[in-house]
């Protein structure tokens, strides 16, 4: 007999295998393997040992109810698609008949195989034992204190990452645009310049843009494609309960950080705000788990937080800390997370999130104050979008104007969303190759530079130096004491341009300049969002809005020169709010963020909210917000707040999936192994009172997850060898392998343990939520949504299983 | 046969009573009535007709399972206590053995009989029919539009009420304090004054205080006691799902409005903010129902919103509009509602609430601008607490000071809460008589005036006129060109005093003045909150905080005269925040409200939040926030966000109530009538497959509410006369009597309909939430809380009832 420790090794093949086993009735008929697909997929499984395989053609030989699942013959679906090998799944299924009900439906809808997270706490016997043990230890209080500590850590580390990204972007952009300015000054002879002289700076500019963009796009494409885009839709889906593979890994964070730096420095039309949420989320998930699977390092702390449910709350806090750091807006950041990202709220969570946000902004402030050499220890607030010097005022008769701006923002935003979706659909169809995706990003970067150069070349907008608002005045074709206002718009990061549009004194631009800029940037930002680079959509959207807002004020002032209320900065701000409302469809958080980042007074909330709400209503008439659109386009099974309208009249029996693969309370290891191999369901009802092997007619007494079954098989937790593992097995045994549960492939063939028995009584969740077949869908949706469920068992009045409902059933039926 | 219309009259006694009836086996034994208690309670029930009565002493004669409920003999509990006749209930139960399980437990805990609201939508056949019909009519969209319209109306009307209260208070206070000032000027000879000269103004002051206070207290005490206090705990309980009788009636609103005017004008230490939330809630409940039961007027609009679930959302919106109007702070108002009042959140609700708040503030602004004669059409914001002229700045080294202020606020707040609770407990025990309550309010008002006069008399704090911050400078004992700083603090409403403390220039008061003022007001406000008057706690709390905050700054400046950062207004603001945090234990909404009401910049959020969070944490160490304390003291079964710690290790079977009174799917009218008479449960499981009359062993197939059963009996919806009512009966039949369901007493004796049968299939809720006896309490608590349930059925694996869980079971066991 081996040392007991070896019993809980992952690849447990110890001597208790030789314990006496009860013989099991293995079919005597010659066994067929499944053919080439099958053997390719499971190189570790020798097809010679057929006992673990099931003949799809001979239902009656198997003495259990698995045959009911095998009504359709043909090759099986891929064995394990937890980590989202979506395309793979489709390849296999499209060339044959579907086998399992659930999978076939998924495949038919040609959606990727997103799995759910286990937000439902599995309160099995092991869990309850732990709870009872901990009740004595005042564990609850300790856990609470630790939770606060983690939230504070999340705030600090997120802020440090944000600072680093901030500073690097600022320094590199400074270098880049200074170099370009020098190059312009060197190459373009003043006043009598011709087009040809602009060629060298233009080429430099192209080079300095495509190099970082190509680097970033290549990293994103080849190393971690999940980092493409802003990350907000992904985080939102995650918080809703959808498992987005690899979303909260350290590698993702690294790629995201480098990706956002390269794209902003490369001059793409995007901002760093969205990625910051994602970065915060990764930090939160990492810290709260006290271990990194990427670095195979377990710090052995915070073990109690290792489940999806706890992690979710930390991720929300991290996201909030990320936005807060990105904008320097603690309350706005928290509200942003709540309004846009969170699917589950409660009071305590909100307070923790707020503290994380506050800590984050405070850390950011200290570091950035030190970096900018502000040594007078005065807390300034960051005012990312620049502080308005004098309080913005408005008159009642301006309210309709704000409303019109809001409506404009709603229309432009809805058009932007729809155009962007079309572009991305085009991309999906025609640019499938990785290399092409990188090239595409480079082409868009070049397009941006070219358009900017054309604007600079063709529009003659020279303004006198002196109270010039830009830090890099470019003389270009202008007179000696003038600077080029067009170049001023382009020769800085988008964030800095938003600042300029808000705060430049009236008369800083020609109407033509701003009009062209609006059009070019609208198109550019639309083409950019969806490229395989890490970029947020907030700043470009605000920029477009600020541009047309300012433009409208200028045009109106041009027509009615006596209208002195037309402060261009004020209208740029309202325009930005309207455009943001039209694209993102948020209201409260955006108004607070704009207020916190520009230091305006609270009485100006009112026009902002007017514009935002008008924009949201108008936009909502046409389509959904950009994040929700992206989630839909990617077929993420995200649960909305209310059930979809077409489900209103239905009942549970009309949407449930059946037949359901059940497992007996005491079932054979052999059967469980077969089931796991054969189907990729993630939850199996546990039944009792089974007559013979008609499992689906037993009384439901619980539910067990695929991941738990795999751990049971891996660690050989059988009835027959109980004495070896029982004293050492606790909920921790299952928690140790979280979150990357091994796949069934890692379970070696059962061989001699094939006749062992598994007793699920202590492992299963004995209290799954159950509903009746005639319950209405809005009602069960409410239950499913509010409790963050993964599986909902539908049972009839005799407590027999009628079907199972998962999140897909609320969306794709 | 009568006209069909009469069939659905409330007191239906039409001719179908004479239809042939199936004989029922009435016990042949002589029937005993229950004695004097019983016959007193049911004057309409003649004890001669014993068929409707049940002999408590003879269990075996009744051929059903009601006897199982009658294990203990004795007089029955009161028949109907829905409208909270709590004392009544106790009287009856205390003098005998308990009869019914649920009631006896309640009575034993000596808590009032609060009932739950039906936030769970009863999706019975009638409801589903309506849904299906409406699916065709695009009803959902129309309902949505109407919902928006209602929210907008709520905002406008709440604001108008708030304006009215505001203006009346302002005008009356102006009159009062002007009169007092004149009186002082007339009676007190300048400079060489003695105490005696102050007597006449003192008496005037007493008179002008006790008259309104006595009037207000009498109204509250004799007309509508529920209006006492701020109303926030009541609204919070309501939103949590507890039925607080009479809380959203028009009479309540009227008394509350008059009550708050009289108490503020009377000079009690209270504000109008809390009552505004309550006023908003009443407005919302009233408008959304489209009818007033008080005025017996049904406008026949908004019928679809007549259930507890819909009303809840409107009430939240109304509350938010109320706070917003009270403070002129739309975002703060919304967050206040969310943070303090709401128990159920979702995204759409938040948007609607925000719109109601915005509309409310806008309306308020227009009306008040017009009233104050600001005709320049500039939106000013209201800045209830006065706008800080120059931006508040702070240094990093002040952060620890802010934290210390926060800790101080937490300590003072916790002490205040505890002291206030002690005072209120004392009141409960020793001042039970209505008249005494009015007298008490008058005494406290006199005490306030006396203390103020003593302060004015003994403290000599004269300041030069000129840049005097007060509008009513009182010369009193001062020189000709001076005013009395002590009198300035007292001769205005508390809200105006907060404004003074925030904005008076440095050196406006002596240290002694402020120190005395702090102590006096601390004690006064503590004694005031809990009086039988309508008053909020926000303003006095802020006032105490502002006083000690300013005091601390002055003392420190006195000790370290070189510390120039010690701006007294800034520290008054932080002090107010800290004290509010210590008493109310909110953070986000308070910081936003303070910001919106004083117009400070968002960079000053940070110190506010620091102070608020420190105060909250320190305070939470000692006790709960004042609103939660009040809720607990009143034994309101309010469900917290998390299950109580002592419930952590329990399972459903340890907290459930049993035996449960069940009703058969087709049961006799007689039995139902008996059950309703005999017990006051509000939900009855409906069972099927009953062998004989052993109802509790049937299979559970639904749940029916007491109110539904009463309607069924009232309208004679029996199987035997189906043809008369079936075509005309819809969900509207039940909705028509909402929210004041008749009691069983209004059902006349069944007489000849005694043998009729009720078929519950179309009336019952066929999908009640069910749990298993071994489910853990935290888990079922989560279900109960998230879904806003009223009854949770505990069933075993054979689908037989094991018990029932209501909100009490999570709190009082």
Which key features would you list for this structure?
CBS-domain; 813 residues; chloride channel activity (chains A, B); membrane (chains A, B); three-stranded mixed β-sheet; Clc chloride channel
What does this structure look like?
Two copies of one chain form a homodimer. In chain A, the strands form six sheets. The first copy, chain A, has a three-stranded mixed β-sheet. In chain A, strands 12-13-14 form a three-stranded mixed β-sheet. Chain A has a two-stranded antiparallel sheet with strand order 1-2. Among the domains of chain A are: 147-170 and 226-371, Orthogonal Bundle (Clc chloride channel), CATH 1.10.3080.10; 656-810, CBS-domain. By secondary structure, the first copy, chain A, is mainly α. Helices cover 52% and strands 6% of the residues of chain A. Chains A and B meet through helix 4, helix 11, helix 12, helix 20 and helix 21 of A and helix 4, helix 11, helix 12, helix 20 and helix 21 of B.
Tally the helices of chain A: what do you get? 28
CATH superfamily of the domain at 147-170 and 226-371 in chain A: Clc chloride channel
| Rg calc of chain A | 30 Å
**Approximately how much helix is present in the residues of chain A?**
40-55%
Oligomer, anyone? Answer: homodimer
Number of strands of chain A: 14
Under CATH, the topology of the domain at 147-170 and 226-371 in chain A can be stated as Clc chloride channel
Going by CATH, the architecture of the domain at 147-170 and 226-371 in chain A would be Orthogonal Bundle
Provide a short characterization of the protein structure:
Chains A, B: This is Chloride channel protein. By secondary structure, chain A is mainly α. The first copy, chain A, contains 28 helices and 14 strands.
């Amino acid at each position: 007999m081996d040392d007991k420790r070896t019993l809980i090794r992952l690849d447990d093949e110890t001597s208790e295998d030789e314990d006496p086993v009860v013989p099991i009735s293995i079919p005597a008929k010659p066994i067929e393997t499944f053919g080439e697909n099958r053997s390719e997929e499971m190189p570790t499984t020798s097809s010679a040992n057929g006992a673990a395989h099931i003949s799809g053609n001979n239902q009656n030989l198997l003495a259990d109810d698995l045959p009911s699942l095998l009504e359709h013959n043909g090759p099986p679906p891929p064995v394990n698609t937890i980590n989202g090998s979506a395309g793979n799944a489709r390849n296999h299924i499209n060339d044959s008949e579907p086998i399992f009900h659930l999978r076939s439906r998924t495949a038919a809808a040609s959606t990727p195989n997103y799995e759910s997270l286990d937000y439902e706490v599995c309160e099995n016997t092991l869990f309850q034992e732990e709870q009872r043990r901990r009740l004595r230890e005042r564990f609850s209080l300790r856990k609470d204190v630790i939770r606060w500590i983690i939230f504070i850590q999340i705030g600090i580390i997120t802020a440090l990452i944000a600072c680093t990204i901030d500073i690097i972007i600022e320094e590199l952009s400074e270098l880049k645009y200074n170099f370009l300015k020098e190059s312009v000054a060197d190459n373009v002879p003043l006043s009598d310049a011709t087009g040809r002289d602009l060629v060298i700076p233009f080429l430099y500019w192209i080079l300095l843009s495509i190099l970082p963009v190509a680097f970033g796009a290549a990293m994103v494409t080849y190393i971690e494609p999940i980092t493409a885009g802003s990350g907000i839709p992904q985080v939102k889906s995650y918080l809703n309960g959808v498992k987005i593979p690899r979303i909260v890994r350290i590698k993702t964070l690294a790629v995201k950080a480098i990706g956002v730096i390269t794209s902003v420095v490369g001059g793409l039309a995007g901002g760093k705000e969205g990625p910051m949420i994602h970065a915060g989320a990764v930090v939160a998930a990492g810290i709260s788990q006290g271990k990194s699977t990427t670095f195979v390092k377990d710090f052995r702390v915070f073990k109690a937080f290792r489940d999806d449910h706890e992690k979710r709350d930390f991720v929300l806090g991290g996201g909030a800390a990320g936005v807060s750091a990105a904008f320097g807006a603690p309350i706005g950041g928290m509200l942003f997370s709540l309004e846009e990202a969170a699917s589950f709220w409660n009071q305590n969570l909100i307070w923790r999130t707020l503290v994380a946000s506050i800590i984050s902004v405070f850390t950011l402030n200290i570091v950035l104050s030190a970096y900018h050499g502000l040594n007078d220890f005065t807390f300034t607030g960051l005012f990312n979008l620049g502080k308005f010097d004098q309080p913005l005022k408005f008159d009642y008769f301006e309210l309709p104007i704000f409303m019109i701006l809001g409506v404009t923002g709603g229309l432009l935003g809805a058009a932007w969303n729809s155009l962007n979706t079309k572009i991305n659909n085009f991309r999906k169809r025609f640019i499938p190759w990785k290399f092409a995706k990188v090239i595409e990003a480079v082409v868009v970067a070049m397009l941006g530079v070219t358009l900017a150069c054309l604007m600079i070349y063709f529009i003659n907008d020279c303004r006198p130096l002196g109270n010039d608002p830009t830090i890099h005045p470019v003389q270009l074709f202008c007179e000696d004491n003038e600077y080029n206002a067009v170049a001023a718009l382009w020769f800085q990061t988008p964030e800095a341009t938003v600042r300029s549009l808000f705060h430049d004194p009236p008369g800083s631009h020609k109407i033509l300049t701003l009009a062209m800029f609006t059009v070019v940037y609208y198109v550019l930002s639309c083409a950019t969002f969806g490229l395989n680079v890490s970029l947020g959509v907030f700043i470009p959207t605000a920029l477009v809005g600020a541009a047309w807002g300012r433009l409208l004020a200028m045009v109106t002032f041009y027509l009615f020169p006596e209208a002195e209320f037309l402060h261009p900065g004020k209208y740029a701000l309202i325009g930005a709010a309207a455009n943001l409302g039209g694209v993102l469809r948020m209201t409260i958080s955006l108004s607070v963020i704009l207020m916190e980042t520009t230091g305006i007074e609270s009485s100006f909330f009112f026009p902002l909210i007017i514009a935002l709400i008008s924009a949201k209503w108008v936009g909502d008439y046409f389509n959904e917000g950009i994040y929700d659109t992206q989630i839909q386009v990617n077929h993420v099974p995200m649960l909305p707040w209310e059930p979809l309208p077409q489900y209103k009249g239905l009942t549970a029996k009309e949407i449930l999936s059946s037949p359901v693969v059940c497992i007996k309370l005491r079932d054979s290891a052999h059967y469980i192994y077969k089931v796991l191999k054969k189907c990729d369901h993630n939850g199996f009802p546990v039944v009792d009172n089974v007559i013979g092997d008609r499992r689906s007619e037993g009384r439901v007494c619980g539910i067990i997850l695929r991941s738990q079954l795999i751990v049971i098989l891996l660690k050989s937790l059988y009835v027959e060898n109980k004495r070896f593992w029982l004293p050492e097995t606790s909920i921790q045994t299952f928690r140790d392998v979280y979150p990357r549960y091994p796949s069934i492939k890692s379970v070696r063939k059962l061989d001699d343990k094939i006749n062992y028995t598994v007793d699920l009584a202590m492992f299963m969740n004995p209290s799954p939520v159950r509903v009746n077949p005639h319950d209405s869908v809005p009602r069960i949706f409410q239950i499913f949504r509010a409790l963050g469920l993964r599986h909902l068992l539908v049972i009839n009045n005799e407590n027999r299983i009628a079907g199972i409902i998962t999140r897909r059933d609320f969306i794709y039926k």
